[in-house]
Amino acid sequence: MTSLEAARARDAADPLRHYRDRFFLPLGTIYLDGNSLGVLPKATVERQRKVVAEEWGSELIRSWNSRGWIDAPARIGAKIARLIGAQPHEVIVADSVSVNLFKLIVAAAALSPDRPQILSEGGNFHTDLHIASGAAELAGKRLDVVERAAVRDALSGETNLLLLTHVHFKAGYRFDIKEVTARAKAAGAVTLWDLSHSAGAVPLHLNRDGAELAVGCGYKYLNGGPGAPAFLYVAEHLQERLIPPLRGWMGHAAPFDFTDYYVPAPGIARFLVGTPPILSLSALESGVESFDGVDMDALWVKSVQLFDLFAALASERCPELQCISPAEPEQRGSHISFRHPHAFEICQALIDAGVIGDFRAPDVIRFGLTPLYLGFEDIWQAVDRMADILDSRRWREPRFAVRGKVT
Amino acid sequence: MTSLEAARARDAADPLRHYRDRFFLPLGTIYLDGNSLGVLPKATVERQRKVVAEEWGSELIRSWNSRGWIDAPARIGAKIARLIGAQPHEVIVADSVSVNLFKLIVAAAALSPDRPQILSEGGNFHTDLHIASGAAELAGKRLDVVERAAVRDALSGETNLLLLTHVHFKAGYRFDIKEVTARAKAAGAVTLWDLSHSAGAVPLHLNRDGAELAVGCGYKYLNGGPGAPAFLYVAEHLQERLIPPLRGWMGHAAPFDFTDYYVPAPGIARFLVGTPPILSLSALESGVESFDGVDMDALWVKSVQLFDLFAALASERCPELQCISPAEPEQRGSHISFRHPHAFEICQALIDAGVIGDFRAPDVIRFGLTPLYLGFEDIWQAVDRMADILDSRRWREPRFAVRGKVT
Fold it and tell me: What per-residue confidence (pLDDT) applies to A404?
């Protein structure tokens, strides 16, 4: 089952194989970094040309209405909603993940003014912790950061908000949204999920699982382009209870009445702030549309298969690599990570050999498994090149030790 | 001096005339809304194609370094610095005007913790007031909003921050940055200027005039495209004294060390938050580069001439319009506004006649005078069509009274 022929046969039989044709995949490269920056959908090229030349260049200011720019944040949010198991009016596109985290942390602080604690995980993606520290200070809360294993027990009558990343950016450990949210709720706390490393690859059923608040990234699995705007999710029952700390005109109940006084827009729209970056937004819309017709459960099945093949091949052919991602599918995301004392040099040698993964300090190599456009042969070829680099010790070449040179 | 021939002669003699060739100007349209959304620079089209197809599509994640994406916010900021009279390291591009206002208001609150007042002007652009209200609440300050004429006298030992828009979005009244900043400083307060309606058209000498904090818009006079990212300015001497409330990884001293603890980047970079939207950012860079070689003082001289011609023609041919913009050049911006009880219908009839201006509730028509690409004949033709609409009473046609139909 780990031969090249077997991988090819699986690609030939893969019912999702045709989705690959929706994307430009760089020639001669195996791109295992779609969890950091997703690839370019073919539809985006023409869409961007049109937005620039026609909508901006010719229609100019009129496009805010005639081409639906003003509705883009809600329209794209509704499309993302399907991918994460939410109702269309519970998701909106705005700003960056970091800014959206700030909005929701500060807004949620008022839900239980007498509870002083914001709780998160040490080693969480650092922007989450940094943003939380600033938000906590302003909201008069205390940010407590505990080890992953201690998170559940640290919930108490003091906890206002539990801030967690669904799939950990490094090893790919995944929390059970349903179980953790319920536990936090039982303690009287609200949970804010960062879906950056899950939306678009890992099964998400926010409504079914009782999720209340979430943010997520547009430029990873959603293929929205470099630095694409982010999204945020607020469960319907909470929307009218949250007052955003960032009160911009796009989130005002009547943006074009130009009143001195702030009245939040009804529903999720109140979390908009300034004028959204339309060029980046429209690329995000194309990226999200690259999921049109895709069965998200089938996509996850394929992710699991890609992971299992990668793990089996690596264990067979690269025994010096230590896989640090969970073996159980329900405990992991859609990337696989390995530890090696020379992870940096190996990562550089891989890039030199046309296999693009990520180095994560101090000793981790991470490979994104994007089931929408990667095949089984891609995995086989990647591990084959990696085995060759390890067997030949080619990563010891001095050029691979120079930071910032090869990439 | 107000004949069509005279206007044409002035265009022929205009030393800035050739800059017009840098832009796509919509055929058959006189676009007087560049103060709301600037036109498309020709260079942007090829630049966007390249960013999408080559940088994202082919180079993918590597472009963060190889194509300079990671440096774009500071690089573009430095280019804007020349246009506003600042040092290159005092300006950075990030987020939206609204989000940047929030960052600076909250950060500045700590400069004088014992002063409870944030002071602003009633009728200021509403997002500024809304953002300030949210920021004030979180920072434990009080937002006091007074009439424009009362601003100077309202400064006191209680004032922490004075928040003003340099050029008013409606009538175009302009504050004297030097005089007002000095007066606020004498009262012990810091001043935050919103340059949205001035940067790229109105003379700005932030350093010379002692400006300490400012934000500005990328999509108006800077031609950065719809919803282009905004910029912020922090005078060198204040940079290390301000701690941003939005602590994202891009503003961290070592973004790729992935530490749990926040350490602000040195200098202006600490005001970055999340991953910047590269497609919109690169369009902004093209927009800012459309000012390459442009003498900003000469540009202002032309703006004054365009305004004076517009005012003279309108007074002569459209006497029922009441000009509400200041007559004195040093008191105004680069747009001209008129009052009329049927401003809305007239604005719609103008659009129908190919003259695009802005209606601002309840009774104002506003025309942006963008000296980089508008000529004297454009002004003549615009007023000619407006006179025709007024004389013929064509704006009374029922279709022009329907909101959102004609645009």
Answer: 60
